[in-house]
């Protein structure tokens, strides 16, 4: 393209301490075009974006806006130049309302007072843009992660940006919500907004991208058209091809003993009368639309939330409602959908985060076995290929996908035999996904059992031995691996559940 780019990162580099994470990379953002950044977890994508957003300053190289060198010493400076950013980790204030979050920093006032009506109206307009139907007065902290992501998107769209940067905006979205977002992206493209887009869903790249910059270990390795076939993109990004996407095989051969029994579990407003069994060696998938009650159900089983009625039994022992410690002691591990708020202590080290569930149980005569814990943490970090420079670095400084692996790793170390996985591969790159699937297989082969909630239907279908479909807080049906097709699941997930017999 001969046209002047809106934004250029010119030969930028960035190091944290002794570790260089971006090295001599050039990216252009053109008006009316979507520049995709592609790379494995930890390749440097978010770091590049943060240099566009004024969060990080490059150690070397320059930032150009309209061809002129600029300094972006802080986020405000970037916003002033018309650069709006949706970061991978959400930046919302949970205790404030949806409207206050959307309009943050731009709260309308009238005679020196907050103009509530105007605030609500402007927020409403921003939400309508992406078809998000939530109460503008709702507390953001009470929304699920998908809706929070949409609020974040609405917030960025409501400022008149010339450059819109989207770091994995679709990771927590369903297909329909993604389509809404892409519709808006198409409108912005037509209006000449320049965009940067990151996603580990390769099919989305051809759908909305124009060009793809492929990064490996902080280096730009290729720049190709977004129409490049997916397997070629994978090869460029991981340096090899990945042939088997869902390595589950045909499921458990022998009937294992029952390890988890859920009977008549109900929680007002979330789910009702849920019963199922899971056997050793089994992966039970739970499918359904956002809002079907899947996350709430997993949280109740894990002891994270209380419930109103019903029982949870692990290996014959009934768990006390709302008691995480008892669940962990019974061998239950929970990978929550919101790793930032519920899964990790961000300022603690990788080592400590991996060890949380085990430190007490591996103590001998009251003495915590720090050396042993460290050895196990290093081993699991290696197995999961958590990309880090030091096991003592804070989890906050890991890339998003590597944080996800750390949540998983904790339960591997703890030797949990019943794993409740809520969107286990969200934000995880294509290669690491297969590694997580292999780990699921290893856990079930070793006698463990898995309950997996996922909005990625191919993942549910590819990795489950049995699929429960939830709709509106109830079980709408159960499908064997053989019966579970995309159509069968969607029919159950969207059909009205027959009303209970009077
Ligand atoms: N503040 C920091 N201190 C130390 N290391 C950091 C910091 N921020 C990022 N890193 C490191 O920089 C590397 C690149 O991280 P980045 O977040 O850019 O990856 P990414 O490509 O966005 O990955 P993902 O797909 O997982 O989001 C990682 O190895 C990460 O641990
Ligand atoms: Mg990232």
Provide structural commentary:
With 502 residues, the protein is α/β, with parallel strands linked by helices. It has three domains: 232 residues, P-loop containing nucleotide triphosphate hydrolases (Rossmann fold); 161 residues, P-loop containing nucleotide triphosphate hydrolases (Rossmann fold), CATH 3.40.50.300; 70 residues, no CATH class. The protein has 17 helices and 22 strands. The strands form five sheets. Strands 6-9-10-3-11-12 form a six-stranded mixed β-sheet, sandwiched between helices. Strands 18-19-20-15-21-22 form a six-stranded mixed β-sheet, with helices on both faces. It has a four-stranded antiparallel β-sheet with strand order 2-1-4-5, covered by helices on one side. The longest helix is centred in the middle third of the chain and has 16 residues. The chain is globular, with a radius of gyration of 23 Å. Bound molecules: adenosine-5'-triphosphate and magnesium ion. Magnesium ion binds next to α1.
């Amino acid at each position: 393209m001969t046209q002047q780019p809106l934004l250029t990162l010119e030969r930028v580099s960035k190091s944290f301490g002794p570790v260089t994470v971006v090295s001599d990379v050039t990216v252009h953002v053109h008006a009316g075009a979507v520049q995709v950044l592609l790379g494995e977890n930890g390749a440097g994508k978010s770091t590049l974006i943060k240099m566009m957003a004024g969060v990080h300053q490059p150690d070397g190289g320059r930032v150009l806006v309209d061809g002129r060198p600029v300094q972006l010493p802080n986020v405000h400076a970037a916003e002033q130049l018309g650069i709006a950013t949706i970061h991978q980790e959400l930046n919302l204030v949970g205790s404030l309302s949806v409207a206050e979050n959307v309009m943050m920093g731009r709260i309308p006032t009238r005679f020196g007072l907050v103009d509530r009506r105007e605030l609500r109206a402007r927020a409403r307009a921003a939400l309508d843009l992406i078809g998000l139907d939530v109460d503008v007065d709702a507390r953001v902290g009470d929304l699920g992660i998908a809706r929070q992501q949409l609020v974040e998107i609405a917030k960025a769209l409501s400022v008149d940006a010339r450059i819109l940067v989207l770091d994995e905006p679709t990771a927590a979205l369903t297909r329909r919500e993604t389509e809404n977002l892409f519709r808006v992206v198409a409108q912005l493209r037509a209006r000449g907004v320049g965009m940067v887009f990151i996603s580990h869903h390769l099919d989305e790249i051809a759908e909305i991208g124009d060009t793809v910059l492929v990064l490996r270990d902080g280096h730009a390795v290729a720049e190709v058209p977004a129409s490049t076939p997916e397997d070629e993109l994978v090869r460029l990004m991981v340096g090899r091809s990945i042939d088997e996407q869902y390595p589950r095989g045909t499921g458990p051969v022998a009937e294992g003993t029952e390890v988890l029994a859920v009977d008549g579990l109900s929680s007002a407003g979330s789910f009702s009368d849920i019963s199922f069994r899971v056997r050793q060696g089994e992966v039970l998938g739970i499918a359904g639309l956002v809002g079907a009650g899947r996350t709430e159900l997993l949280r109740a089983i894990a002891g994270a939330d209380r419930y109103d009625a019903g029982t949870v039994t692990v290996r014959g022992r009934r768990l006390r409602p709302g008691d995480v410690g008892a669940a962990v002691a019974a061998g239950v591990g929970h990978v929550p959908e919101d790793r930032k708020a519920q899964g990790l202590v961000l300022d603690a080290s990788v080592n400590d985060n991996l060890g949380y569930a085990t430190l007490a149980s591996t103590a001998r005569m009251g003495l915590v076995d720090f050396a042993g814990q460290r050895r196990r943490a290093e081993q699991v970090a290696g197995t999961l290929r958590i990309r880090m420079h030091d096991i003592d670095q804070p989890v906050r400084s890991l890339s998003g996908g590597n944080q996800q692996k750390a949540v998983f790793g904790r339960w591997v170390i703890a030797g949990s035999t019943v794993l409740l996985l809520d969107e286990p591969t969200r934000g995880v790159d294509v290669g690491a996904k297969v590694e997580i699937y292999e780990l699921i297989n290893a856990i079930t082969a070793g006698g463990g059992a898995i309950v997996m909630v996922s909005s990625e239907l191919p993942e549910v279908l590819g990795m489950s031995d049995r699929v429960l479909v939830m709709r509106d807080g109830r079980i709408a049906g159960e499908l064997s691996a053989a019966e579970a097709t995309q159509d069968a699941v969607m029919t159950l997930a969207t059909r009205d559940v027959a009303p209970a017999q009077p």
